[in-house]
Write a structure and sequence with these properties.
Layout lengths: L6 H21 L4 H17 L3 H17 L3 H17 L3 H17 L3 H15 L8 H15 L2 H17 L3 H17 L3 H18 L2 H17 L3 H18 L2 H17 L3 H17 L3 H15 L9 H18 L2 H18 L2 H34 L2 H13 L6 H79 L3 H36 L7 E3 L1 H19 L6 E5 L7 E3 L1 H26 L6 E9 L2 E8 L6 H4 L19 H12 L3 E7 L3 E9 L9
Helix pairs in contact: 1-2, 1-3, 2-3, 3-4, 3-5, 4-5, 5-6, 5-7, 6-7, 7-8, 7-9, 8-9, 9-10, 9-11, 10-11, 11-12, 11-13, 12-13, 13-14, 14-15, 15-16, 15-17, 16-17, 17-18, 20-21, 20-22, 20-23, 22-23, 23-25
Length: 703
C-alpha cells in the first residue's frame, strides 16, 4: 500500500530538513562531529518525503564531515549518492562542491593528477554561477594539490590568488587556510622563521572563525617549526596545546600528529620514557584511523629509541623487531620512502651490534630504494612541468580516465575551455608581475637614497679631514715657496734645497689627502647608483672599517651627545673576496646604523653607568669569509625575530624606519651573493648579525 503524506506534514518535514541542514552548514567547520549528526537526521527525514534537494544537501555536508574525520571511504559513499540528486535538481553549486570534495579525497590518497582533474572541473562549474563566493576555496585546494606535486611556484600562484579573492569577500576562514599553507611551503623550503610568521597569522584568523580543527593544526605546525629551530620548550608548549584541542573535538588525525611530534621532542631532549609513551599513544590512534604510513614512521622511531645506548631499556632485538613490523607496513602500502628509511635503520642497528655483513645487505637495499625514489621524483617533476606549462598531460590523463568511465565523455571540451581561461589568467598575472617588479625596483632605489641620506653627515665629516690637511699644507707650501725665493736671492742654495724638499713632501701630502677625498666621493656616488651587479675583488676589512666610521659620524652629526666605543677585530689574513662592493657596503651600513641606534636607545634608558660598544669582526673560514656586527644595546625581543627580515617590518617609531633595510640586506646576501645572514640576540643585552659569504671564481674562469 502506497504511503500517503499529508501536504501540511510534508511541508513541516521539509522545513525541518532545511533547518537541520542550515545548522549543520554553520557547524561543519567549527564542530564537524555535531554537523555530522544533524546532516544524518536531515537525510533520513528527506528520504521519507522524497525531498531531493534536502537529501542531496544533507549528504554533501555528511560527506564533508567524514573528510574532516579522515574517513574517506564513508565520504565517497555520501558524495556518490549526492551527485545524481544535485544533477536531478540542476544544482550547479552542489555539483561543484562534490567535484571539489572528490579532489580533496584523491589528494589525500596520493592521486594528484586525478585531484587536479576534479578540482578544475569544480572551478569550471563555479564560474558558470552568478554567485562565485566559493571560488577562493576552490583556488586554495588547487594550490594545495600543486604543493603536494612539489610545484611550489604554481602552488603559490593559486594560493596568492585565493588570498586575493578571499579578502575581497572577507572570507576569513579561507584566508586562514591560505596563510597556513604558505607557511608550510616556507617550512618545506627550510625557511622556518617565515613559516612561523604565516602560521601565526593563520592561527589568529582560525581563532576568529572558531575553527578548532584548523586551530589545532596551526598550533602543531608552530610547534614543529620551533622544533626545527631547536627551541624545544616552545615546541613542546604549542604541540601540547594542539593535542588538548584535538582531544576536545575528537580530531583523531590531529591527536596522532601532535602525540608523534611531542614524542619526537622528548626524544631529542633525551626524555626517553616520555618519548615512548607519546609514540605508543600516537601509534594506537594511527592504527585506529588506518594511517599505515604514520604507523611505519613511529615504528622507525621506536627502533631508534631501543638502539640508543643512553636509553636504559635499550635492546637491539626489540629495535630490529620494530623495523620488521615497519617493513611489513611499508611493503603493504608500497611506500618506498618509508622502506628506504627503515632499511637505513636496519643498517645502523646491525652495524652497532657488529653484524656487518647483514648491515651491508640492508644498506644496499636503502641505496637501491633511494635511487628509485630519486628517479621517480625526477619523473614527477617532468609531469609537473607538463601540467604547469600546458594542458597536454591533463588531456592524456583525462582520455585514459574517459575509457574507464563513460561519464567523462565531454571532459576534453571542458578542459579546452579551462585552457583558454588559464591562458587569459596567465596574461593578467604576467602584467601584474611586471608591475610588481617595477614597484619593487622603485622601492629598492628609494631605500638606497634613504641610506645615502644616512651617510651624508658621515661623509661630510670624513671629507672635512682630508680637506683640512689640503688647506693647511697648501698654506704652508705657499710660505715655503716664498722662503725658497728669498734663499735663492741670498744665494743660500743649501737651505733652499732643504726647503724645497719640505715643499715636495707637502705636495705629496696634498695629493694623498686629495685622493682620500676623491675616494669618499666616489664611494658615495657608487652607493647612490643602481647596481650593475658586477662583482669585483674587494677588501672586506677596509669596507667594514670605512662604513663603520661613516655610520658613526652620521649619527654623531644628529646627536652630538652620543658616544660609543668602536671596536674592530679584523683578520689581517683575510683574503679579498669577489662581491658587489656597493651592495655589501649597503648591508654593512644598515647593520651599523641599527647597532648605533640600539646602543643610543639603551644609553637613554640606562644612563651614564652604561658603556655602549659596537664591534665589527672579520675572519677567514674554509671556503668563505665571515663578518660579525655586534652591539651591547637593547637587543631584539624573541617574538620579533621571526619577522625581522620581512619587508616593511620595523620596530622603530613611525617616520624613523622604512622596514626595508634588513629585508633588502637579506636578499643581497642570500640571493645576490649566495651567502647567509643570521641574527643572534638576547633582549636587553646584545644583538649580533653574522654575514657569511662564499668565495666565487670569476665568471670567465674555466673549470
Amino acid at each position: 500500500m502506497q504511503k500517503i503524506v499529508l501536504p501540511s506534514v510534508a511541508e513541516a518535514t521539509k522545513n525541518k530538513v532545511d533547518a537541520l541542514n542550515g545548522k549543520a552548514r554553520e557547524l561543519m567547520v567549527i564542530d564537524s562531529n555535531q554537523a555530522l549528526v544533524l546532516s544524518q537526521e536531515a537525510v533520513r527525514l528527506a528520504e521519507g518525503i522524497v525531498y531531493l534537494q534536502g537529501e542531496a544537501e544533507g549528504l554533501r555536508i555528511w560527506g564533508f564531515c567524514h573528510i574532516r574525520r579522515s574517513e574517506h571511504d564513508k565520504a565517497v559513499y555520501c558524495l556518490e549518492k549526492a551527485f545524481p540528486l544535485f544533477q536531478a535538481t540542476d544544482d550547479l553549486k552542489g555539483q561543484a562542491d562534490i567535484w571539489q570534495y572528490k579532489g580533496i579525497i584523491k589528494r589525500c590518497q596520493g592521486n594528484y593528477a586525478l585531484s587536479l582533474e576534479c578540482l578544475f572541473k569544480a572551478l569550471a562549474t563555479r564560474e558558470k554561477l552568478s554567485n562565485q563566493e566559493d571560488i577562493p576555496l576552490n583556488l586554495y585546494d588547487l594550490g594545495i594539490t600543486y604543493k603536494y606535486l612539489g610545484s611550489y611556484s604554481k602552488a603559490l600562484d593559486y594560493l596568492l590568488k585565493s588570498l586575493q579573492e578571499a579578502r575581497k569577500i572577507k572570507a576569513t576562514l579561507t584566508e586562514s587556510y591560505v596563510m597556513n599553507n604558505i607557511g608550510l611551503i616556507y617550512y618545506e623550503s627550510n625557511d622556518f622563521y617565515r613559516a612561523l610568521s604565516y602560521y601565526q597569522q593563520s592561527l589568529s584568523l582560525r581563532k576568529l572563525s572558531g575553527d578548532q580543527w584548523g586551530e589545532a593544526g596551526c598550533l602543531d605546525n608552530i610547534g614543529t617549526a620551533y622544533y626545527k629551530l631547536e627551541d624545544h620548550e616552545k615546541a613542546l608548549t604549542f604541540c601540547q596545546q594542539s593535542l588538548a584541542i584535538a582531544e576536545s573535538i575528537g580530531d583523531k588525525k590531529g591527536q596522532g600528529n601532535a602525540l608523534f611530534h611531542i614524542g619526537s621532542i622528548h626524544f631529542k631532549l633525551k626524555d626517553f620514557e616520555q618519548a615512548r609513551l607519546n609514540w605508543v599513544n600516537s601509534q594506537q590512534i594511527r592504527a585506529e584511523i588506518q594511517d599505515k604510513k604514520g604507523q611505519a614512521d613511529i615504528l622507525f622511531c621506536f627502533s631508534e629509541l631501543y638502539s640508543d645506548k643512553e636509553f636504559l631499556e635499550a635492546n637491539t632485538e626489540k629495535a630490529i623487531g620494530y623495523l620488521n613490523e615497519g617493513v611489513h607496513l611499508g611493503e603493504d602500502i608500497k611506500a618506498k620512502d618509508t622502506l628506504s628509511k627503515i632499511h637505513k635503520g636496519y643498517y645502523q642497528v646491525l652495524k652497532q651490534s657488529g653484524d656487518y655483513q647483514e648491515a651491508l645487505v640492508h644498506y644496499e637495499k636503502h641505496i637501491a630504494l633511494d635511487k628509485e625514489i630519486y628517479s621517480e621524483a625526477m619523473s614527477k617533476k617532468v609531469i609537473d612541468l607538463e601540467i604547469t606549462h600546458g594542458i597536454e598531460k591533463a588531456i592524456k590523463e583525462m582520455e585514459a580516465f574517459r575509457i574507464r568511465n563513460t561519464e567523462l565523455a565531454k571532459l576534453n571540451e571542458e578542459i579546452q575551455e579551462q585552457k583558454e581561461r588559464t591562458e587569459l589568467q596567465r596574461d593578467v598575472l604576467r602584467k601584474a608581475l611586471t608591475d610588481l617588479k617595477a614597484t619593487q625596483s622603485q622601492l629598492v632605489q628609494s631605500e638606497k637614497m634613504a641610506s645615502l641620506g644616512e651617510l651624508t653627515a658621515g661623509i661630510a665629516h670624513e671629507i672635512q679631514n682630508p680637506l683640512n690637511f689640503v688647506n693647511n699644507f697648501s698654506e704652508v707650501s705657499v710660505e715655503l715657496c716664498a722662503e725658497i725665493g728669498q734663499e735663492i736671492e741670498s744665494s743660500l742654495l743649501e737651505e733652499a734645497q732643504t726647503t724645497l724638499a719640505d715643499l715636495v713632501q707637502n705636495l705629496y701630502k696634498i695629493q694623498e689627502h686629495g685622493r682620500r677625498a676623491e675616494a669618499i666621493v666616489k664611494g658615495m656616488l657608487q652607493h647612490s647608483r643602481n647596481s650593475t651587479g658586477q662583482k669585483e675583488l674587494t677588501d672586506l676589512n677596509a669596507l667594514a672599517n670605512e662604513y663603520m666610521r661613516l655610520a658613526y659620524h652620521g649619527l654623531r652629526a644628529k646627536d652630538q651627545s652620543f658616544n660609543t666605543a668602536l671596536i674592530t677585530h679584523l683578520d689581517d689574513k683575510l683574503q679579498k673576496i669577489r662581491v658587489v662592493p656597493q651592495e655589501i657596503g649597503r648591508v654593512l651600513l644598515n647593520l651599523f646604523n641599527n647597532a648605533f641606534y640600539a646602543v643610543q636607545q639603551k644609553q637613554k634608558q640606562a644612563g651614564q653607568e652604561y658603556k655602549p660598544e659596537v664591534r665589527v669582526m672579520t675572519r677567514q673560514l674554509r671556503g668563505r669569509v665571515e663578518v660579525r656586527v655586534c652591539d651591547n644595546g637593547t637587543g631584539i625581543p624573541q617574538k620579533v625575530k621571526a619577522k625581522l627580515f620581512q619587508p616593511f617590518f620595523t620596530t622603530k617609531p613611525s617616520g624613523q624606519g622604512t622596514g626595508l633595510g634588513l629585508s633588502l640586506s637579506y636578499d643581497i646576501i642570500t640571493k645576490g651573493h649566495r651567502g647567509k645572514l643570521q641574527v643572534k640576540s638576547q633582549e636587553g643585552k646584545f644583538t649580533e648579525f653574522i654575514i657569511r659569504l662564499p668565495f666565487e671564481k670569476p665568471a670567465d674562469t674555466a673549470e
